[in-house]
Amino acid sequence: MTTALTRLFKTTAGLLAIALLTGCWSSIELNNRAFVSVMLIDQTDKGVELTLGFPLTNRLIPGQTGGSGVSATASSAQPNAYISRVGPSLEDALQKIQGDVPRQIAFGQTHSIIIGSRFAERGVEPILEFVLRNPYLKMNTNLFLVEGPVRNKVAQMSIPFERFLASVLNGYVSNRQIMSTTVKDLMYSKANGGDGLLPILGFIHNNAALAPGSPPSLTTAGAAILRNGKLVETRLKPSELSSARAILNQLKQYIYSIDSPTDGGKIGFYTTSLDMTIRPALTGEDFKIVIRCKLQAVIIASDSEIDLESKGEIRQLEQAINKIANEGFASVVAKTRQAGADVFGFALYFSVRYPREWNRIKEQWRDYYKNRLEVKIETDAMLKRSGSSVHSIREKFLNDEA
Amino acid sequence: MQTVTQAQLFKLFALHLFSTMIAFMLGIMMQQSGYNGPLGILSGALIGLGMAFFAYRLGMRRPDRFFVEYGKEIVGRWLHTPLVLFIAVANLLIGMINFWELQDFLIQFYLVSTPPWAIAGLCGICIAYTVRFGVNSVFRAAEGIFLFSLLSFLLIPILVSESFNWYIGVGLATHFSPREAWPSAYYTSSVFGEMSFVLFIYPYLMQPHRTFRSMSGSMIVAAALVLLHIVPLLLIFGPELASNLNYPELELLRFMRSGSFLETLDPALIALWLISIFVKLGFIVFIISLILAHLLKLKDTKPFVSPVTAFIAVGSLVIVKSNIQFQNLMTGGLLTLFFASELIPILYYVVDSLQAAWRKKRKGRFN
Questions:
Q1: Where, by residue number, does the polypeptide cross the bilayer (chain B) (predicted)?
Q2: Which residues of B make CB contacts under 8 Å with A?
Q3: In order of start, what are the domains of chain A with their CATH numbers?
């Protein structure tokens, strides 16, 4: 091939390549996209109500605090939009919302989905199916529950610390202050698929800086139990939820107080590390699950005369902690067993370790979990430090005035 | 003539083996073998290397002649030409299938409204351009991209390691079942057996006696890398969920939670994968052009590169119309076809050994 011909070939091929730039067909301008930051799904009398929360980039002003639906005059400057439509199914509602929004709806930044309790009672499979099949929604999207109608409560609450609701929820999850249940957690195995704990988002007036009559702010408030994808009656209180999160190895730092075994005064603790190991066991024909908790704690306050330098008394304290922790775990496991929902995923451990025996009982796993499973819980607490001081203030510095 | 170093061969084969396996085939392995996927992959890799061993031995007997030319001395012209054409057709099919998988993957996730012919066309131009410049450009491309590709594939399991549920690893031992592992082993060995096509390029290799060492090295690196991807799949998703995913590797990528910018890193990694797949396709196109050129007694492979690439590109657009048809195709007899094409060098090896033994006996009789 002559040099001229080679050059011609190269130029043509190069030009063709540029002309056929494959990105240009499917490119969507960034300005033409509406990123969904949070999805709210509820059930109304007329059908499924889907609400998509969009951060409004056209209203984002540097220095603006944003995020609060405090007063009517400020609402037009809010950097959020919650577009809501009702349809017979999730996809129909989505299509209607797309008809309302002048940009292409993009799901790539959605990290949280908030489900209304009425929808959850009918079953959350449509959401799981939607997330799983959508190529842009990720499986580690967090799920939350709100009791009652979702839309207005969420859209109009006040958010003191962040600009967007999504940042608040992401903050809760990344700081491990809330139970983190993702879409993937509900789909490990057919035997307990759809069993899980959904953290409940509550609304309380706890911000004294807001004028009376302002909408409430967000708080974390216990959990609800899902069984086979449907919500059941039982709810977990926040204290029970902490035990549940501990079992799922999500609880790392926790502050609590117990009564001293010596004189009943309150002693406050702060766990610095908490490791749970869950192991299946098989004795004969019966399955047993062994839950072992190793925790290390630091004393942060003491209102008791207990001598924190004596090994024996420390040992007593540790045993008191063990007892309380065991009771907490046992009660939360019992509650889930009563509801017949294997929310901790024990099914996975048995299917991994004892496949043959598991195959025999996996069809009736929930029933087995409710009635026949043996649960053994052990806690091993270790008190590492007593904080920066040795004796309690009351003992050392205050006089007992009769 | 001898312009390809053993290091380049090692890198090309390593890329060739792990690029499409990790990108496209992990889903099917999970569906068919579950916990025994890793076992199947290991066995398949060893079987594939075993098949390639015979090609190596056959090539070593005549390291400075092209197989397509001396093959007819072994089995006769009337058998050699159809067999070699069979290998060419099998390679064409491998190329078409990989092309199709590539454009299906890209269109589904990243380039939603792009027509398939644009992707096929553009990729075809890239590959044709590379291969036209001869064997050196293919191997140099492999050498260049190998390190980056390897690092990017290694990065993924490390970044998702915080989501592992290590206890599931126990299932690898408790669910041990060679019968369950067999479909994966079959699949993997048809991929790893593609190393037996080294037979065609022997005259280009420097130090041909070290070819088997390079091939073993490629097998080890590729198998290790595939295992480093399939085991995290099991540890994060569990076998039931992983078998339900069409592109488990992509879901794995999306599971990274280490900082918000890494979560959307997948397009950058996809770009590196693409280049590795181009290298593989370049090698396949080169083999086909070599076969056709030598069958028609032409010295140069250049004239055939563009038509072959065009054929593969257009063929990939029409070979299947949908993903469902594609699954049907793959679970049918196509794998056996690839297997058969990789076993052909063994046939030649056996016949050649018999002939050599027979010749020695005849010589001995005259003494």
A1: 12-31, 37-58, 78-100, 106-129, 141-160, 185-205, 217-237, 270-292, 304-324, 330-351
A2: 108-115, 118-119, 121-122, 125-126, 129, 163, 165, 167-168, 170-171, 174-175, 236-238, 240-241, 244, 251, 254-255, 257, 263-264
A3: 29-236 (no CATH), 238-394 (3.30.300.210)
Largest CA distance in chain A: 112
Contacts B244 to A, Cβ<8 Å:
132
Contacts of B236 in chain A (CB under 8 A): 184
For residues B119 and A314, what is the distance between their CA atoms, to the nearest angstrom? 70
Q: How many C-alpha atoms does B160 have within 13 Å on its Cβ side?
A: 29
| Under 8 Å between Cβ of A178 and A148 | no
Domains of chain B in sequence order: 6-343 (1.10.4160.10)
CA–CA separation, A179 and A246 (whole Å): 10
List, in order, residues 6 or more apart from B211 with CB less than 8 Å away.
B6, B9, B56, B59, B60, B198, B202, B205
Q: How far apart are CA A194 and CA A122, in angstroms?
A: 12
Residues A192-206: tens digit of each pLDDT: 888 999 999 988 888
Which of these ranges, A379-393, B131-145, B199-213, B226-240, has the smallest mean pLDDT?
A379-393
Which DSSP string do the residues of B209-224 spell out, in sequence order?
A: GGHHHHHHHHHHHHHH
Q: A217 with A207: CB under 8 angstroms? A: yes
Please give the ipTM for the structure prediction: 0.82
Q: Do A188 and B240 touch (CB under 8 A)?
A: yes
